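REQUEST FORM: STRUCTURE PREDICTION
Request ID: SP-0412
Submitted by: Lab K.M.
Chain count: 1
Length (residues): 124
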Amino acid sequence: MEAVGFVELLAVPAAKRRWSDEAKGRMVAETLVPGVTVNEVARRHGVKANHLSSWRTLARMGKLVVSEVAGAEFTAPVVVTQTSEPPIVTGTIDLVIGSVMVGLDAATPAARVAELVIALRVCA
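STATUS: Completed
RESULT:
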């Protein structure tokens, strides 16, 4: 038998894929379903597992919106607004360093308390 010819195979690097934030959020949501692993979802979508894990971190930090998926154990971050009035504080603060004691009102700002602590440590 005679060799007729040959075939040359060239390996070409794959093009860099870009995923939309919406697609990333859908994939992250799939990983939040109990019993589903990151590797399983990554393999299904043709994504590296470490990329998917990075997207999960972004979602935890609130930087990536996660789609609603049935069975996912994920709650969206909730913004809690604080009241504009500080809480009413009663009582006293006693600073004791060595033989020196200073009594302060409980409403004394934390910065002032810190200044006094430093001053008392220098004096003691």
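NOTES: The mean pLDDT is 80.
Reviewed by: T.R.
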